[in-house]
């Protein structure tokens, strides 16, 4: 490797690592904000949060790479142009294409690696991330006693604390309804004060109550204001109640239950599902005619010679047959409505199958288009940086955001049109890249000719050629 290549690569890798980390952090933060309400207040611990963030960061990597390459390319070649290093290289006889070659090779390797990463690693990370997120959603919020309100988070118990000291463990005026043995309020515990603490690695909650009474109903009695049934009262100075905290644990669901989702499959698995759905939709279309046939009624009319009749298809038909009664019209109307309702539901079912097949095929093409977008963003960023000659995080960030939004909007529109069947799935997913590719080639052409951003000498060359032809 020549010294020039080392210089260019060294100038590129620093901004690339920095911008990738920043973009990954921003995208991950924006994505996790959607689930913030479901994550806080459940006492998950740093380990669970770290695991969830790690898996979702893998999910965000294919989206972050194109923007990171675009921004780092702009910064790298903008800084080289701003410090006149790019000018010195060109004056020594080295073309811009030769300067871009080492970074182009590295970006090509990143593109290939991103494709395999997106196809093999991301589906497994999605499976673990979304299964963990599901378990977190099902987990109960952390235990929190509020003064003057009943807490029903522990199965079989309703606990009310009227006073709670600043240390969070000392309680005053405690009331406990014990439903653990069934029935309605069969056991009630009243205490003047108490303390609570965890035991055995936070697996059990111990309520140590002082100076109170336990009321146990007899038979099917209940503690209502109108009940005259008897109950047993037990007075105590100290009483301990040990409550299991198993219901607050994070129970993990088997990951196989989530594996049918399209985000958890690679290209081969997505292709199998897509082909199956396509065949099923085509088969449903062929079954429509036999399915709708029973809704029609067929009968043979007597077309013999009838007095006061008229000729129909060469046969005499009674005039009364030509004037259907109200019952016949009502029957025909109902049958038409039934056919229309059946056709609408049948068509909607076929559309849903086609839409689902499009969703799976979209996931296939996204693995290709997201990887190719990395190379296209380099073709835009590197020549544009050489043209504007501005490094740092100012102008490059602004330009990068504009092109990233443009790419993102076109990707969303193409995906939506492909899902609804307005365009083919391949055309919808590749449209954004195919639109941005000529822009990148135009920037490369301008940078190679040392032209400004919007300076196009096409008309000047055309007029010069016309003059030479006249001469």
Automatic annotation (TrEMBL):
Query: Phosphoprotein among the record's keywords?
Result: no
Q: Is Cell membrane a UniProt keyword of this protein?
A: yes
User: Which residue ranges traverse the bilayer?
Assistant: 12-33, 53-78, 99-117, 368-388, 395-413, 425-445
Q: Membrane topology for this entry?
A: Multi-pass membrane protein
- Give the principal location in a single coarse category: membrane
Family matches, as Pfam families: LptF_LptG (PF03739)
Write the record's keywords in alphabetical order, separated by commas: Cell membrane, Membrane, Transmembrane, Transmembrane helix
Subcellular localization is given as: Cell membrane
Q: What is the name listed in the Swiss-Prot or TrEMBL entry for this protein?
A: LptF/LptG family permease
């Amino acid at each position: 490797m020549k010294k020039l290549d080392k210089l260019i690569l060294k100038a590129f890798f620093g901004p690339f690592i920095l911008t990738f980390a920043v973009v990954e952090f921003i995208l991950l933060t924006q994505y996790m904000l959607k689930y913030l309400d479901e994550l806080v207040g459940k006492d998950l611990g740093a380990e669970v949060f770290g695991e969830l963030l790690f898996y979702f960061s893998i999910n965000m990597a294919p989206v972050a790479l194109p923007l990171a390459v675009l921004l780092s390319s702009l910064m790298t070649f903008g800084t080289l142009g701003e410090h006149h290093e790019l000018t010195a290289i060109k004056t020594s006889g080295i073309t811009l294409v030769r300067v871009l070659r080492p970074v182009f090779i590295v970006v090509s390797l990143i593109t290939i690696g991103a494709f395999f990463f997106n196809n093999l690693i991301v589906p497994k990370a999605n499976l673990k991330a979304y299964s963990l997120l599901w378990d977190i959603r099902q987990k109960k919020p952390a235990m929190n006693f509020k003064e003057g309100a009943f807490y029903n988070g522990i199965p079989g118990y309703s606990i009310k604390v009227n006073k709670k000291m600043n240390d969070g463990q000392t309680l005053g005026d405690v009331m406990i309804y014990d439903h653990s043995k069934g029935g309605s309020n069969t056991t009630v515990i009243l205490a003047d004060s108490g303390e609570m603490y965890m035991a055995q690695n936070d697996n059990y909650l111990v309520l140590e109550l002082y100076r109170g009474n336990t009321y146990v109903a007899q038979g099917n009695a209940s503690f209502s204001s109108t009940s005259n049934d008897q109950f047993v009262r037990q007075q105590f100075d100290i009483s301990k109640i040990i409550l299991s905290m198993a219901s607050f644990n994070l129970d993990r669901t088997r990951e196989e239950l989530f594996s049918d989702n399209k985000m958890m499959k690679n290209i081969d698995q997505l292709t199998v599902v897509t082909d199956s759905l396509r065949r099923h939709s085509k088969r449903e279309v062929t079954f429509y005619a036999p399915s709708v046939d029973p809704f029609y009624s067929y009968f043979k009319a007597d077309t013999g010679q009838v007095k006061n009749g008229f000729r129909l298809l060469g046969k005499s038909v009674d005039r009364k047959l030509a004037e259907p009664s109200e019952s016949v019209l009502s029957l025909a109307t109902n049958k038409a409505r039934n056919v229309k309702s059946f056709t609408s539901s049948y068509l909607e079912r076929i559309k849903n199958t086609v839409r689902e097949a499009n969703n799976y095929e979209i996931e296939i093409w996204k693995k290709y288009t997201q990887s190719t977008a990395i190379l296209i963003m380099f073709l835009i960023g590197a020549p544009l940086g050489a043209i504007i000659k501005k490094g740092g995080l100012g102008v490059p960030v602004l330009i990068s955001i504009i092109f990233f939004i443009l790419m993102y909007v076109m990707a969303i529109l193409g995906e939506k049109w492909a899902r609804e069947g307005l365009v083919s799935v391949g055309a919808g997913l590749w449209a954004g890249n195919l639109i941005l590719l000529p822009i990148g080639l135009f920037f490369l052409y301008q940078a190679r000719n040392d032209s400004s951003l919007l300076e196009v000498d096409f008309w000047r060359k055309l007029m010069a050629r016309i003059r030479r032809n006249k001469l």
